[in-house]
Design brief:
Largest sheet: 3 strands, antiparallel
Order of helices and strands: EEEHHHH
Helix content: 40-55%
Structural class: alpha+beta
Number of domains: 1
Strand content: 5-15%
Radius of gyration: 15 Å
Distance between the termini: 23 Å
Amino acid sequence: MSNMIEYKKGKKHENDKIVLVNGHQITFKELAEIMIVFYNNEENIYPRPRFMGGEYFANFIREFLATKAVTEAILKKYKLDDNSRNKE
């Protein structure tokens, strides 16, 4: 886990967690804005119909949310594991 990203205990529930990036608590709005940038970036770099565009990113998000984990298998499928990144 990066020092840039921290997880702290929240106050709303015994299992509540707060996400901090460089000491700043990330809000749902900020997370949504970041995700839109990633989606649009995929649209620009890998445009349809030749590629999947932003849907590639959206599918990645849907898949790890469905499993509630960012697994090695998912990272490998989307070429985000260490082995895939080292080939570029």
